[in-house]
Design goal:
This protein is mostly beta strands. The protein has one domain. It is built from one helix and ten strands, in the order H-E-E-E-E-E-E-E-E-E-E. It has an eight-stranded antiparallel beta barrel. It starts with a helix and ends with a strand.
Length: 126
């Protein structure tokens, strides 16, 4: 009975992963923040594909042809900042196996990759 239940759960989870809708966001600038100290704004041309290839991957495409893939390992959570900004956040593994969080703000202008406590990179649409 346990094997049957486990099989049904695995089958259901595979359907949930397949049902993820792919969507694309483009960003034109970025800034790194380390221990609340902001770096210099950088001009960027980054395309981010969410749920790439029908799975829960988030792929960053850079103008030089490089890509960076993050695989979602925890379900999406919705929340708001203390300022009232709504966002969605997921935990991911990068290509090296390092754990990061990706935070997508619902105002559709900002994406944050949280690398470690106090260190993150923001991508913005100007």
């Amino acid at each position: 009975m346990k094997k049957l239940l486990l099989g049904a759960l695995l089958l259901l989870s595979s359907f949930v992963c397949i049902a993820q809708e792919t969507f694309v966001k483009k960003y034109t600038s970025s800034i790194a923040v380390n221990n609340n100290i902001k770096g210099e704004w950088q001009s960027a041309d980054i395309t981010v594909v969410f749920n790439a290839n029908g799975v829960r991957d988030i792929v960053f495409y850079y103008p030089n042809g490089n890509t960076r893939t993050f695989h979602q390992i925890v379900g999406m959570t919705k929340n708001t900042t203390t300022n009232g900004d709504a966002y969605q956040i997921v935990e991911c593994l990068d290509e090296s196996g390092d754990r990061v969080a990706i935070q997508l703000f619902e105002d559709d202008t900002c994406l944050r990759v949280i690398i470690a406590k106090g260190y993150y990179v923001e991508f913005h649409r100007d």
